[in-house]
Amino acid sequence: MKLRGAGLRPALGQRGAILLVVLVLIAVVALGTSSLTLDTSAQQQRRNEEELLFVGEQYRQAVDDYVRRSPTGRRQFPAKLADLVADNRFPQPRRHLRKLFRDPVNPNEDWVLIKVGNAIVGLHSSSKGVPFRKTGFSLNQTEFASASSYANWHFVSSMRVAINARDPVKPGAGTTPGLTGSPSPLPGR
Question: What pTM was computed for the model?
């Protein structure tokens, strides 16, 4: 009987070692999978950032184009984002933007419109996410380097004209959430 008991002990010890190796392998695979998932999500966030920069610039340029091509000689800003897709100030509607784009970093929310009176002078994301990118911005985006969230990446028209004598355009003066361009009075008015 001693032989039987002695023969079982090494077999149990080998099983324990195999079990330990299997558990270590499972832990290594789990860590690898979790770091791959984090890597993939970081890559997706970086792609969304690049798309936000592209789309935001498209809106900024479309607002500039809308103002620059005002037909009456009196430069006007759009009252709603849809005006950038179909500018009905002309007999044949003009397009300053191909389509209305969703916010790539916060696609379930509307853009936050930067308005002066009823005029849209720019927009920004409502996302409080922290940007990865801190360098390599265009001249229109230099302040983005110090932004603490995507909501601080403001895409504002470079046009500096008065909407009327009472409301000079001051980018970032008032904001209103929404995609429709609903009126938003300036704070304190």
Answer: 0.67
